[in-house]
Amino acid sequence: MVSVMVVDDHPMWRDAVERDLQAAGHEVVAVASNGREAMARFPAAAPRVVVLDLQLPDSSGVQVTSMMLEHDPSARVLILSASGEQADVLDAIKAGATGYLVKSASSAELIDAVVRVSEGDTVFTPGLAGLVLGEFRRIAEGPADDPRDQLTERETEILRMVATGMSYKQIAARLVLSHRTVQNHVQNTLRKLQMNNRVQLTRWAIEHGLDEPEG
User: Is DNA-binding given among the entry's keywords (predicted)?
Assistant: First the structure.
């Protein structure tokens, strides 16, 4: 069961998402219709995942994402938006969102995304992942001192898989490790690189060419 907060200014859509989450066995700990309500209820509700619309009447979902993660860096934000525009997707990811779905996604896709995001995976509507990775690669700066030297071989191996978009479950199966062991390696890597979440880690790995085949 995942604790979830739903933020959307359209009552029918907000209610439908809440019903789908509850029917799947998850706990909706708070709902909000705008950014002000969301930030007022977020601290006490302490959701693991926030399903957040990008277009809110009083503020942008990008602003709300930044404020939420500033308050609680361990929270996960899944954008659920009508927009699939490149600028909107990139702004949300740069603000710290862990996933981005367009509202044409099915109920099953939404539920799956909530679970995966709660576990630290990055989740995108098909087609958007390549857009994000391509843009991060384009804006990557030239190489500086290589911090990879402080990572173990296993951490580097897992980081390469993270950079290609593999989930923890897929990595665990590929390396014949437990899900928890993979998570521990990723957490150690985050600590060594002084990063807060998998989105930052993925971007760093891409900028350093770890999404490319070795050799």
Answer: yes
Token pair belonging to 180: 């928890």
Burial class (CB in 10 A: 0-12, 13-18, 19+), 185: buried
- Specify whether the CB–CB gap between 49 and 7 falls below 8 A: no
At 50, list the tokens: 């926030």
Q: Which residue has the tokens 């399903």?
A: 51
Span 118-145, average pLDDT: 67
The model's pLDDT over 84-109, given as tens digits with 9 standing for 90+, comes to: 777 788 888 888 888 899 988 899 99
Q: Identify which of 161, 104, 108 has the alpha carbon closest to the alpha carbon of residue 127.
A: 104
* Residue 81, phi then psi, degrees to nearest 5: -135, 155
pLDDT score recorded for residue 150: 77
pTM of the model: 0.65
CA distances to 5, 19, 25, 53, 97 from 15, rounded to whole Å, are: 12, 6, 15, 13, 22
The whole-angstrom separation of Cα 23 and Cα 26 is 7
Encoded tokens for 204: 């760093």
